[in-house]
């Protein structure tokens, strides 16, 4: 039901845009205007991009068919389709962007709230389709209750994944907020202080490492069983996919961002748009790209270890073990 409401709402909004309305539409990634609060001149856009209009309607129609099939014909194929839809929506939402932009916006930085709102809605839709996939999947396996320790190598990679955003992100950004030109030229530091308020800088500095600490839950008891202080859920098993899917999507997003950003930098150097001297002078910014790549890889390995440790076991095997 919730997935159906999401799809209908999205298709209705896109149809409204196709008809000429522009409420909720943003053109900040297509125009040179600097007006994030007003959608960067969205009201003056006459021709709607394909994927914002008819393309999105087509995707919405496919999702609607998927929802109907999942309700009418639950099973392995419906679950696989729902998972594919969930991954697509989460990738389009690009959670990493929200991780940086929402704290900065709350701290007072001018932000495109239309874009942020759309991304939050897409992320919510992705979570709804995860629930749909879980509900229509065949019940052939049962997960053993209680805490199941993860492999030792998983813990090591979890510590790496938690330390990287602190050492590779929070430390240099904290120094820049304090006015220390660590690994960047003074002119770039002046630009940072000119364009960002102190509170925005603090938010951008602290939020990623704090969010990165959540990876430790993949190796702790509270990552498999809700803590006692959680009302209504205390002691219950944490749904396995509730941990695996968000962590997996975050790992994929971080690796993708690191690879694409590094590729763009290499292309700029090869074409002469960026000089090697600039790369050396701003080595801390370049190193940040590698931090994202390594952070995503460490998170991906940790998630794999969690998935292995918590994988469901066949009911027959579990019953036999209990009888013995």
From TrEMBL:
This is Uncharacterized protein. The chain crosses the membrane at residues 51-71, 83-100, 120-137, 157-178, 198-219, 240-263, 283-309. It comes from the Bacteria. Keywords: Membrane, Transmembrane, Transmembrane helix.
